[in-house]
Design a protein that fits this description.
This protein has 6 helices and 11 strands. By secondary structure, it is of the alpha/beta class. The chain has one domain: Vaccinia Virus protein VP39 (Rossmann fold), CATH 3.40.50.150. Bound molecules: S-adenosylmethionine.
Length: 231
């Protein structure tokens, strides 16, 4: 395990990881699974989408991917494209996901991730397909990537905080993410900071603050206008 990373128990019986270099945890210390479900999956309505295309900033511990799988029928289609600049080891992914009691039995796609992860990291890219679930993780800096235009029904903007990881929250990068949304697509993020909301708005998205877990921290969803039927 990298010296930068320390496992940390969460009150929901799970584990998260503290990243010493960023000085932050990978997910909410209070209820990582509940936050992932509320902010990212329900926030973008990915659980009820017929054929979602998810673009994620920061695959991290794979929690949002696992939550998305858990909230959809096992046979339902899902296209998931994530970027990760500093991948953890497969061993750490295994430990953290085994601890998350509330995420239930692992989906076959998650098993495939664990089996191929370490090799994929050395190759710079992971591709997994199980049934109608397709996951690609690209190991690199997403701010330097050419993202697919108008591809995503949902963007999960889940970098570390704007204070610690500013490059994934700049107005330029947020506009780049907005261009990758389909018409009618939704971006969700746990940060409701004013600068983040202004960047989303400047990118042409309609921004809404939502009440967070237990009515506490707010989060943000931002919608791209759907194409109007002019007939
Ligand atoms: C809060 S954690 C993500 C947690 C993750 N979404 C999950 O469900 O477990 C933030 C992640 O963003 C990654 N990250 C930060 N800057 C990045 C960049 N420029 N490109 C790609 N990944 C980045 C970090 O390495 C870290 O894994």
């Amino acid at each position: 395990m990298s010296n930068d990373l320390t496992l940390f128990s969460t009150p929901d019986g799970g584990l998260t990881v503290f990243h010493a270099r960023y000085g932050e945890h990978y997910s909410s210390r209070h209820g990582p699974v509940a936050q992932s479900q509320l902010v990212f999956v329900e926030g973008t309505a990915t659980h009820v989408h017929l054929a979602p295309h998810v673009l994620e900033v920061g695959f991290g511990l794979g929690l949002n991917f696992r939550t998305t799988l858990r909230m959809r029928p096992e046979a339902a289609p899902l296209q998931y494209l994530a970027y990760e600049a500093h991948p953890v080891s497969a061993d750490m992914l295994r430990q953290v996901s085994a601890s998350a009691v509330s995420t239930g039995l692992p989906h076959p796609a998650w098993q495939a991730v664990l089996e191929s992860w370490d090799n994929a990291v050395t190759q710079g890219r992971l591709d997994v397909q199980r049934g109608k679930v397709a996951l690609t993780v690209i190991f690199g800096d997403i701010t330097a990537a050419a993202l697919p235009p108008q591809w995503a029904s949902a963007v999960y903007l889940d970098g570390f905080s704007p204070a610690k990881n500013p490059e994934v929250w700049t107005p330029e990068f947020v506009a780049h993410l907005a261009r990758s949304l389909q018409p009618g697509g939704v971006l969700a993020t746990y940060s409701a900071a004013g600068a983040v909301r202004r960047a989303l708005s400047a990118a042409g998205l309609e921004v809404h603050k939502q009440r967070g877990l237990a009515g506490k921290r707010e989060f943000v969803v931002a919608h791209k206008e759907a194409v109007r039927d002019e007939r």
